[in-house]
Structure formats: structure tokens, C-alpha cells
Amino acid sequence: MTADVIDSFRDTPDERLRAVLASLVDHLHGFVRDVRPTVAEWESAIRFLTATGQACTADRQEFILLSDVLGVSSLVETLNADASGDTTEATVLGPFHVTESPPRADGDSIDLVGRGEPCLVTGSVRAAGGAALPGASVDVWQCDDEGFYDVQRPDRQPPGNGRGLFAADEQGRFRFRTVVPSHYPIPTDGPVGELLRRTRRHPYRPAHIHFIAAAAGHRPVTTHAFVAGSPYLDSDAVFAVKPSLIRECALVDDPVRAAAAGLPNPFRHVEFDIVLRPESP
Ligand code: BEZ
Ligand code: FE
Question: If I label 268, which of 45, 94, 196, 281 is the partner at 20 to 30 A Cα–Cα?
Fold first, then answer.
């Protein structure tokens, strides 16, 4: 039967699609033979997937969340990453890149609320050989000091809070002001939350700032800067922590530097340098 189903796709003109479907059928049938679900269990699985789809809206992506908590998003990112060289490691996109980040000027603040611990983020975008990539785009998004993204609390945060689209300067450098993000639970009010509860898993992610860096002739990287010392660095609910992405969030007590950054003294400072790999090997 498995062979018959695979054979039913034999005329698929797209070779890759044909191969993907053959493997999917092979693994799905293997899974069913292994688990031997009752009809009631299979119906319950279909109900779960249906509810997952129904929980998706313009601002909410429950299927990404499902892929995340099963470790699939992280596996796809890792398999696609180039293990060689010192290019910046990729990690999950997550479900909160749902709105366009507002374009901002170098040094701007992405904090539109004014609560939380002030933080300066500086960094550079470079090519693997070390050359600066002026004009590289740096798209950032993060939660607030209470662990919520703007789209989760439209009544408490203006749209675009915690988000910004920056262009690296002539030296490939970027800088912005923000607040230190908190660790936070992924949304648990949908089917994925139910899955975590049924399996006694906690929903927390360690504190992080998301980045997508892109430059002409280079592969864009979707990644995070994780805050060193944050709870849950060793048990991220979505398996996305990579040690190379953990950064100190140093306390700076220096009124001159604070004034230069446009921040109150003292403040925190995160340095995050990004190295992109060339488009083609
Ligand atoms: C996030 O970091 O925004 C995220 C990633 C995976 C699941 C939920 C949230
Ligand atoms: Fe996040």
C-alpha cells in the first residue's frame, strides 16, 4: 500500500516535489505502523491539527509554534546553516515577525514605552573575510521588559514597539537603543499550550533580541542575540539556543558614554557582530 501511494505521484513533473512526497508518505506510514493509532486517536490528532490551523490569524501563527516546540524549526535552520567558517549561526524565526519593522535611523530607540532597563545595542555586519557590509539591512524585534511583543498587547504597546529596520553605516556598523528584554512564555492559550500542559513541559524562552541581517551578494541570516545569564538558556521551549549567540548584557556606569548614547546612566550594553556568508559557495 505504501508503495502504491508513493507510485501515485510518479507523474509529478517537479522532481523535488515528487521526492518530498515519497519521503513524506514513507515516514507517515512508518509512523502509523509504529504507533498503531486507534481510529479515535487518529480523529483526535486531526482535531488537534484542525484547532492549530483555526488558531492562526494575521497576528498569530500557531503552526510555526507547533513546529518550534517539536524542534523542527530549529532542525531546519541548523541543517540549512553552513557549519564551516565563523559566520553567524541561524536560529528560529518564531511567530512574532508578523508586522513590518518600522524603518529607523542609526542610534534611534525601538522602545516607545519608556519602561524597563535601558540598553544600547551595537554591532556590525561583515562578510566572512572580515569586509564591512555598508548598507546591510538589520531587522530587529524583541519583547518588552514584561515579556510581551507589541502584537500581543496592542492596548499596552503602540504598534512597532520593540521593532526597527536599520541600515548599517559606511563601516557596516549599526546601533540602537532599547530596553533589556525579559524571558517569556510562548503563547499557551491555544492547542500548542495544551500540548505543553499535557506533557508537563514549561513554555519559557530565555531573553533574546531577534535579528534578520541581509546584504547584497550574501545569504541573509535569521538569528537571535541571547542575554547571558537569562533563565531558561538551558531549557528553551523551542530548542533554539546556540552558545555562539549568547552575549553579555554588561552594566555600563559612565555618564559620558550614557550621554553620548542618549540613555540614562547607568545602562546595559550588548554588542552583536554579524558575519554573513556569500550567496553562492
Ligand atoms: C520568539 O522568539 O519570538 C518565539 C519563537 C518560537 C516560538 C514562540 C516565540
Ligand atoms: Fe522572541
Answer: 94
**Residue boundaries of the structural domains of the chain:** 2-60, 72-276
Ligand 1 atom closest to Cα of residue 186? 8
CATH architecture of 72-276: Sandwich (2.60)
Q: Is the dihedral of CA 79, 222, 238, 86 positive or negative?
A: positive
- Atom number, ligand 1, closest to the C-alpha of residue 187: 8
3-class SS string, 104-136: CCCCCECCCCCCCCEEEEEEEEEECCCCECCCC
Which of 64, 205, 232 for mutating ligand 1's site (highest number of atoms within 8 Å of CB)?
Answer: 205
Which of 61, 139, 238 is the pocket-test mutation for ligand 1 (most atoms within 8 Å of CB)?
238
Q: pTM above the 0.85 mark?
A: yes
Task: Establish whether residue 119 lines the binding site of ligand 1, counting it when its CB lies within 6 angstroms of any ligand atom.
Answer: no
What digits encode the pLDDT tens for the residues 13-67?
999 999 999 999 999 999 999 999 999 999 999 999 999 999 999 878 899 999 9
